[in-house]
Design brief:
- This protein has about 120 residues and is mostly helical.
- The two termini are about 10 Å apart.
- The longest helix has 25 residues.
- The protein has one domain.
- Helix content is about 75%, strand content about 0%.
- The chain is built from 5 helices and no strands.
């Protein structure tokens, strides 16, 4: 079970990179994640949820939808909070090292989400 959990976690990290970077390369998606309920942020988070479902269905069957939904909802709110924090403090890549700290913290929270999903789904805790 531990080996399967580790493999799932690695795939979730790969999925995260694909969904958070190459598949988010359109302005309507990344510019609007700070507007609550905007289709861009919802679509971005839905891609994450779909990716999580595709990965976890192998081990969990259709029960993977619960974890996919949790990932999408959590991902959405992490991104929304980061975008609004950056906007409030006027943090941009070219004006503050805090922008990069914010980005790193955002990524940390996403990865901790995957650890939590795997720990619960594979009954490690």
């Amino acid at each position: 079970m531990l080996e399967a959990a580790f493999i799932a976690l690695v795939w979730l990290f790969v999925k995260h990179f694909i969904c958070d970077f190459p598949l988010q390369a359109t302005p309507w998606m990344y510019r609007n994640k700070g507007t609550y309920g905007h289709v861009g942020g919802l679509a971005h988070s839905a891609l994450h949820g779909l990716g999580t479902f595709v990965i976890l269905i192998y081990w969990l069957g259709l029960h993977a939808w619960v974890y996919a939904l949790a990932d999408a909802v959590i991902h959405y709110h992490i991104d929304w909070a980061k975008m609004n924090t950056n906007r409030y403090f006027n943090l941009k890549p070219d004006n503050s090292e805090w922008f990069w700290i914010s980005l790193g913290f955002d990524q940390l929270l996403h990865h901790l989400t995957y650890f939590g999903i795997v720990a619960i789904a594979f009954k490690l805790i």
